[in-house]
Write a structure and sequence with these properties.
Elements: H1 5-16, E1 24-27, H2 28-38, E2 43-46, H3 53-60, E3 66-69, H4 73-87, E4 91-95, H5 99-113, E5 118-124, H6 140-144, E6 150-153, H7 160-172, E7 178-184, H8 185-189, E8 191-194, H9 214-226, E9 230-234, H10 236-240, H11 244-254, E10 258-260, E11 275-278, H12 285-293, E12 296-300, H13 306-309, H14 312-316, E13 321-326, E14 340-343, H15 346-359, H16 366-380, H17 397-408, E15 413-417, H18 421-429, E16 438-439, H19 450-460, E17 465-471, H20 482-487, E18 493-498, H21 503-512, H22 528-534, E19 538-542, H23 548-557, E20 563-568, E21 578-579, E22 588-589
Parallel strand pairs: 2-3, 2-4, 4-5, 5-7, 6-7, 9-10, 9-12, 10-11, 12-13, 13-14, 15-16, 15-17, 17-18, 18-20, 19-20
Antiparallel strand pairs: 1-8, 21-22
Bound molecules: flavin-adenine dinucleotide, thiamine diphosphate and magnesium ion (MG).
The site of thiamine diphosphate has 20 residues, from α18 and α21.
Length: 595
């Protein structure tokens, strides 16, 4: 079903309502739909059940919002989350009460950990039945409280429109996050007067700061311009705050080295020399060594995650000044003590910083900067991402990713991944130059996101190519969504790096548990080619290195088909560099010779 932009705009205008003279009696479910239309919602991923049948009935009677019937509620939330990550819009999912909601919990927690703007609507048992162990009742507000930015239980249909306005506002402003709106069945069918969707919203207790403190920004500037070994460490906040252009401008003005976290890949172009690669547990030598040895660190929308800092005591051994720009004050000095905190929106703060750099007559010490770059180039020469490229016997997983990158780097392509070794190889060997092209679960590390993320993106971006790099373990966690892909014509390309192992677990067992491979080998795997065919798609089995490129070429040619590529990769390959748990970020294992 194609919906034109004009139709969405006119539905949004109609649902805004005008004045009290336009007062009309509407059911709660109809008010909900009008609210979603007013917010410009185009897609909802969901699954019906008793508590939401009035909402589904109202959906049936409208034409501007496309609903996608998934095969499992977890995938509904992931698909809406993937859509949100790729577009920057609020992702919307709809689930029924009880098991519908509990199935959605992993999806909600995944979005929460990565600060993704979402509104999840759940059905609830009728208000008089709440607390009576009613059929399919669960305490949605209680269950989701620790994994949402906010949640609401709507007890009166008259509050519904304002609650939706607040939900969208909270989800997309400040540090974004998922908001759950729980709607009891009686609220969805009760008729109340509707006077239009609120134009504005005010909440006394919620006022996220946008503009950073001018005095703090000036102090940051002083530090940055007098640095001898400066470093810019950026994260997901740059993407969430749509500030990639500002970041590029600042880095170009300063000429300083820059790194991205796993969540920030694409915030700065990977093909630029000033980019040192990802940092952290599986980061490059140059990125991690620069982090440890810099004298001034500018952290931008990055939260000093344990996978990035490693052993905090080791990190603190070197003296450095830290400037931290983050919209959420609770992110600042959480794990690492910061010298100059700047609470504000990354776009606003960087813009101000850029203006100040432009106006300042001070310039960084060119000699010191050149010496710092020499040191960095020395680290870079180690070429820590080299691997056995010429192997003709077995497919190296890195080779699949690198080949895909070579073939699609100039294309309009999105890459999703699941969680495991394949995710790290995707992050290391696909060099993202643009924002919102790399879609994965970092904070919760949820296996099973890959296919739903890809189908959520493909729906919103039908003309783009969408690849899902996955493992044979992860892909089975939401494999049922291949059915949704067919029904809604969202042809995606699945690149399964099939090593017959829960590879990341196997790697840890090899390195940290003396090779005791407890339950990390997966036997009795399905025939993925036949499975893909059974779902109405194309399956390809690729067993030899020389077949990797032709398979990818064939899959890309099949534009309108979902293709499952089962790449049989080296089962014992490990991800390097690797920082073991408890180690400092410069204490890296670089290859199997270090084991
Ligand atoms: C198997 C596995 C291995 C991993 N290995 C690594 C690794 O080697 N390296 C690595 O980097 N990560 C790794 N991760 C990911 C890691 O767990 C974290 O998810 C990641 O490091 C966090 O990225 P971030 O600091 O960019 O924060 P995010 O989670 O992206 O948080 C964004 C920050 O920006 C702030 N923010 C949001 N919006 C704005 C705005 N508009 N303005 C200002 N600030 C804003 C938020 O408040 C928050 O503090 C791994 C994950 C898995 C599953
Ligand atoms: C839902 C969930 N369960 C368990 C884990 C722990 N875990 C992390 S990676 C991994 C193995 C993934 O295996 P596979 O998808 O085959 O990827 P590979 O590491 O082999 O590339 C596991 C079990 C997780 N991240 N998510
Ligand atoms: Mg595997």
């Amino acid at each position: 079903m194609e919906i034109s932009k004009a139709e969405i705009t006119s539905a949004a205008a109609a649902s805004q309502g005008h004045s009290h003279s336009a007062l009309q009696d509407l059911m709660g479910s109809e008010i909900l739909i009008k609210s979603l239309q007013a917010e410009g919602v185009q897609f909802i991923w969901g699954y019906p059940g008793g508590a939401v049948l009035y909402i589904y009935d109202a959906l049936y009677k409208q034409e501007t919002i496309q609903h996608v019937l998934v095969r499992h509620e977890q995938a509904a939330v992931h698909a809406a989350d993937g859509y949100a990550r790729a577009t920057g819009e609020v992702g919307v999912a709809l689930v029924t009460s009880g098991p519908g909601l509990t199935n959605a919990v992993t999806g909600i927690a995944t979005a929460y950990m990565d600060s993704i703007p979402m509104v999840i609507i759940s059905g609830q048992v009728p208000t008089p039945a709440i607390g009576l162990d009613a059929f399919q009742e669960c305490d949605t507000v209680g269950i989701t409280r620790p994994i949402v930015k906010h949640n609401f239980l709507v007890k009166d249909a008259r509050d519904l429109a304002m609650t939706m306005k607040k939900a969208f506002h909270i989800a997309r402003t400040g540090r974004p996050g998922p908001v759950v709106v729980d709607i009891p069945k009686d609220v969805s069918f009760k008729k109340v007067a509707y006077s239009g969707y609120p134009q504005s919203v005010e909440m006394r207790s919620y006022n996220p700061v946008r503009k950073g403190h001018g005095g703090q920004i000036r102090k940051a500037l002083q530090l940055l311009l007098t640095a001898k070994r400066p470093y810019i460490y950026t994260g997901g906040g740059v993407l969430l705050g749509n500030a990639t252009q500002e970041l590029r401008t600042l880095v170009d003005m300063l000429g300083y080295p820059v790194t991205n976290t796993l969540m920030g890949l694409g915030a700065y172009p990977a093909s630029d020399r000033k980019f040192l690669g990802m940092l952290g547990m599986h980061g490059t030598i140059e990125a991690n060594n620069a982090m440890q040895n810099c004298d001034v660190l500018l952290a931008v929308g990055a939260r000093f995650d344990d996978r990035v800092i490693g052993n905090v005591k080791h990190f603190a051994q070197n003296d450095r000044k830290i400037i931290h720009i983050d919209i959420d004050p609770s992110s600042i000095s959480k794990r690492v003590k910061v010298d100059i905190p700047i609470v504000g929106d990354v776009k606003d703060v960087l813009t101000e910083l850029i203006n100040m750099v432009g106006e300042s007559s001070t310039r960084a010490d060119a000699g010191a900067l050149a010496a710092w770059w020499d040191t960095i180039e020395g680290w870079r020469k180690r070429d820590c991402l080299k691997y056995d490229r010429s192997n003709r016997e077995v497919i190296k997983p890195q080779y699949v990713v690198e080949t895909l990158w070579n073939m699609t780097k100039d294309a309009d392509a999105y890459v999703t991944s699941d969680v495991g070794q394949h995710q790290m190889w995707a992050a290391q060997y696909y060099r993202f130059d643009e924002p919102r092209r790399w879609i994965n679960s970092g904070g919760l590390g949820t296996m099973g996101v890959g296919i739903p993320y890809a189908m959520g993106i493909k729906l919103a971006k039908p003309d783009s190519e969408v690849f899902c790099i996955t493992g044979e373990g992860s892909v089975q966690m939401n494999i049922q969504e291949l059915s949704t892909c067919l029904q809604y014509n969202t042809p995606i390309k699945i690149c399964a790096l099939n090593n017959r192992y829960l590879g990341m677990v196997r790697q840890w067992q090899e390195i940290e548990y003396s090779g005791r491979y407890s339950h990390s080998y997966m036997d009795a795997l399905p025939n993925f080619v036949k499975l893909a065919e059974a779902y109405g798609h194309v399956g390809l089995l690729i067993e030899r290195p020389e077949d990797v490129e032709p398979a990818l070429r064939e899959a890309r040619k099949l534009k309108d088909r979902t293709v499952f590529m089962d790449f049989r990769t080296d089962p014992t390959e490990n991800v390097f560099p690797m920082v073991q748990s408890g180690k400092g970020i410069t204490e890296m294992l670089l290859g199997s010779e270090d084991l």
